[in-house]
Amino acid sequence: MTKTALITGATSGIGKATAYEFAKHGLQLILCGRRQERLQSIKKELEPLTKVHTLHFDVRNKTDVENAINSLPNNFNTIDILINNAGNAHGLDPIQSGSIEDWDAMMDINVKGLLYVSKAIIPQMTERQSGHIINIGSSAGKEVYPKGNVYCGSKHAVLAITEGMRIDLNPFGIKVGAINPGLVETEFSKVRFKGDIISDTVYNGFEALQAEDIAEIIYFVISRPKHVNIADLLVFPTAQANSTTVKKEL
Ligand code: NDP
Ligand code: 8X3
Predict the structure, then answer these.
(1) What is the largest CA-CA distance in the chain?
(2) How much of the chain exceeds pLDDT 90, in percent?
(3) What is the reported pTM?
(4) Active-site residue (options: 20, 116, 145, 151)
(5) Could you give the domains of the chain?
(6) Is 151 a catalytic residue?
């Protein structure tokens, strides 16, 4: 039977590439994000391959999250796979001069938003005793780098929550895992640096991961047999050894 996957943050980067990858394999899709026009144009492009429904909400707004999930039509309301991907870094500042607005954004989107979406979907998975949740963490969830403070904190939280979900959902046969990329060339740095010119240089001098690399890995993870759960996966570009060690040729 065709599986249905809900992807948050499907309007760009990793989430968008995952939508295209899943569509190639015939999964039915629920694509989420704030930028409605992008959702519509992705839907139009993917509809020759699969059925697509879009949901337009900010993951920070728990009422909107709940209403959006509750609004799903019958043919889309059984969610087999949840990809909790929406998120970003906001700013790269030492803790003493970081902006509270940036901190709020990262904790509210990366951590609380992930929880709100999960809360709206987990009950149907426990009831059916099946489902697969993948949380997109980060190498920043496994180590802390200078000025990464709150973003790293948010991604450490994602990993702790992932482990907690896996334990609590274990009796229900629900798979839970995290995929933790290093440097991926997406709109991530444009958002982090608020469009500043510095965002153009982040991926210079080495071959960064592309969103499609992560999308292929996500598809691999969701396509394992029923008894196999990839619980935690760290993936760097070859040029990157950890958050602070990147072999650049400039
Ligand atoms: P992008 O900026 O390209 O994509 C971020 C996505 O998140 C967009 O689709 C955006 O949609 C969505 N999003 C952001 N804020 C909200 C919000 N408040 N409500 C709903 N959706 C939101 O970045 P990436 O693809 O790189 O990032 C995806 C995930 O991967 C994030 O969790 C990020 O932390 C993680 N990651 C990224 C790495 C990288 O180097 N790029 C490395 C490791 C992890 P819209 O604006 O339309 O709402
Ligand atoms: C994104 C990777 O190194 O910018 O999570 O934190 S990094």
Answers:
(1) 54
(2) 98
(3) 0.98
(4) 151
(5) 4-246 (3.40.50.720)
(6) yes
